[in-house]
Design goal:
625 residues; 18 strands; transferase; alpha/beta; 44% helix; 24 helices; eight-stranded parallel beta sheet; 2 domains; zinc; methylenetetrahydrofolate reductase [NAD(P)H] activity; TIM Barrel; elongated; eight-stranded parallel barrel
Length: 625
């Protein structure tokens, strides 16, 4: 049997209510409190808003549950009250409907989780679906007439929410909406046609667009969907334009009269669920009600020419020459690289001299760290660029995701590429709690595997995270971290496979001091790693240094006989070099090069190791030093 809501939509357009958050904000409810908590803290305020929309002429109420999922509620310490808050929201809407004796439909509002799904983020699809199930189960059990998924920018995420709803109650209607920008695609680059195809294939009863920058972008998205899927049922629920902040207040420019014209145009297009998102008020809904009432149900819909869907064909420039590092890997050259720390101040003299010395010793490339141990340093892409231009040796830029939002990540990538830095080593980065500024924010929008995927499938294809054209593709070579000696080899193997699937071109390993460590990993991996591997080499400086690494640095274990050698050696730094060279010899057939991390910035030790590796006579090299 067809659901009553779907039967009613088939007869003509329904008008939804307007913004809930805007109304709560105007009544003194703070963003910091979390609007969903009003269902249990100030239920009468929520009910008053529902009743105002019903009196304005709304046919549909959305529950005040846009962010009432476990992830969002955890920001306010309410993660264990998901069911309670969602049930309360439904009951408030039902009470408003009964008080005014209006036969309005009630839709359970479900918004995104605020965390990206793998591979761009750390949240797995299975975890996301479970979180959505918890919220949607509560809404359905409380008696909603349907579920409305809104303001999603990730197609993968909204599909998990849609699947959750259909698993719980296959017959309940689901309205699935995404948000589109001025460029006609979602924040993650999904085109309207692709959105409609995916959502309809997953069982959405109504598909559409909401929020965005206003009615024009929403209607444009709907038109492109209709061109491909003319028989689908559509919703259009835009913002009241682009918000502005004035005198401490958030204002939206689109007037009720403008929204009245939008409602009429949407109805003429055949849109069946029409309403307002952020910034819309009972006045907007009242104007839309009058406009829809003036459009007589049953009259032929005036023919309107469809706007053509523009197709942009982009010319991709021919790739430039591979980086020196890529050429070294391709030729089978045994690569040597040394990690350099940018200076704390503005003087680069010592660093550039060190870079020249290491180049003279034979280093293939030089690694430039980014705020190692979360300590303030000069921006590494500036250092990398200056080393390349003034010393004439290529660099590998360390690029942590921690402490960077999506805007900074992408801006920094463009800056690096513009400066000619094309080798990128993607890592999570050190937490600020251990560094110079422990109270500094170190949140992040994207995990390392997600950044690798963004670079290889986005930037290197000429598009940013939102699908916007960069004008030309970038040409980054991307490295990832590997721990041969991880305590959980199964997990490390799985993680490496994920990194390679996300586009990693090479690996830099953590240091190790036992030649059996990489062999055990390769056995667990099922054979040699498919991409080049540079073994991390951290020469021991003395017995205290060795004891510190062994006892206090996670992931590093130093065999007892190595600790004994460092304790009894007369020239301890040189004994550390001997141990490093012996280890390189022992595993040279398993790796493609070495990545030297000089102890205590003793770069002369790194140069000594490079010369010895290339000469192949370690005894003579030690005597010359």
């Amino acid at each position: 049997m067809t659901h009553p809501l779907l039967m009613r939509l088939a007869q003509g357009p329904l008008l939804t209510d307007g913004a809930m958050g805007t109304q709560l904000y105007s009544r003194g409810y703070s963003f910091k409190q979390g609007f969903d908590s009003a269902n249990i803290e100030r239920p009468q305020v929520v009910r008053d808003i529902h009743e105002a929309y019903l009196l304005a002429g709304a046919d549909v109420l959305e529950t005040n549950t846009f962010g009432a999922n476990r992830v969002k509620l955890a920001e306010h310490g309410l993660q264990d009250r998901v069911a309670e808050i969602n049930r309360a929201a439904v009951q408030i809407a039902q009470a408003a409907r009964e008080a005014l004796r209006q036969p309005a439909f009630i839709l359970g509002a479900v918004g995104p989780l605020g965390r990206m799904l793998a591979p761009l983020g750390a949240l797995s699809p299975q975890e996301a679906r479970a979180i959505f199930r918890e919220q949607i189960q509560a809404l359905i059990e409380a008696g909603v007439d349907g579920i409305i998924l809104e303001t999603f920018s990730s197609l993968a995420e909204i599909q998990e929410a849609l699947r959750a709803a259909k698993e719980i109650a296959p017959d309940i209607p689901v309205i699935a909406q995404m948000t589109f920008g001025r460029d006609g695609v979602t924040k993650l680059g999904h085109a309207p046609v692709d959105v409609a195809a995916a959502l309809l294939a997953n069982g959405a009863d109504v598909v559409g667009a909401n929020c965005g920058i206003g009615p024009r972008s929403v209607l444009a998205a709907i038109r492109t969907m209709q061109a491909q899927y003319p028989h689908a049922t559509y919703s259009a629920i835009p913002n009241a334009g682009w918000p502005e902040q004035m005198d401490g207040r958030i204002l939206y420019p689109a007037t009720p009269e403008y929204f009245a014209n939008f409602a009429r145009e949407a109805a003429e297009m055949g849109v069946r669920l029409i309403g307002g998102c952020c910034g819309t008020t009972p006045d907007h809904i009242r104007a839309m009600r009058a406009a829809l009432d003036s459009w007589q149900a049953g009259e032929p819909i005036p023919a309107r020419p469809r706007e053509p869907v523009a197709v942009h064909v982009r010319h991709i420039a021919e790739n430039p020459a591979p980086t020196a590092l890529a050429r070294a890997f391709a030729s089978g050259h045994f690569v040597t690289t040394v990690e350099l720390e940018p200076p704390r101040g503005v003087d680069l003299t010592d660093l550039l001299n060190t870079a020249a010395m290491l180049k003279g010793a034979g280093a293939t490339v030089l690694n430039v760290a980014d705020s190692p141990l979360a300590r303030m340093r000069m921006s590494p892409w500036a250092v990398a660029s200056l080393i390349q231009s003034r010393v004439g040796i290529e660099t590998v830029l360390h690029f942590p995701t921690r402490g960077r939002n999506l805007l900074r990540v992408q801006g920094d990538l463009l800056a690096a590429h513009a400066l000619g830095v094309r080798n990128i080593f993607v890592v999570m980065g050190d937490p600020t709690a251990i560094g110079d500024y422990p109270d500094a924010t170190d949140s992040y929008d994207i995990v390392p595997t997600g950044l690798m995927k963004l670079i290889k499938e986005g930037f290197n294809q000429g598009r940013d995270f939102g699908g916007n054209d960069l004008g030309a593709p970038t040409h980054f070579l991307v490295g990832c971290a590997l721990n041969f000696g991880a305590a959980n080899l199964e997990r490390e193997v799985k993680l490496l496979r994920k990194k390679i699937a996300s586009g990693a071109d090479f690996c830099l390993t953590m240091p190790f001091y036992d030649p059996d460590v990489p062999r055990r990993f390769i056995e667990a991996y099922g054979g040699p790693v498919e991409i080049p591997v540079l073994m991390g080499v951290l020469p021991l400086y003395n017995e205290r240094h060795a004891a510190f690494l062994h006892n206090e640095v996670p992931g590093i274990t130093i065999p007892e006989h190595v600790l004994e050698r460092m304790a009894t050696a007369e020239n301890k730094p040189q004994e550390g070099v001997r141990i490093a060279l012996e280890l390189i010899d022992a595993v040279r057939d398993l790796v493609d090069g070495i990545y030297i991390m000089p102890p205590f910035r003793k770069y002369d030790i790194a140069a000594q190791i490079i010369r010895a590796v290339y000469r192949g006579n370690h005894a003579n090299a030690m005597q010359e030093e």
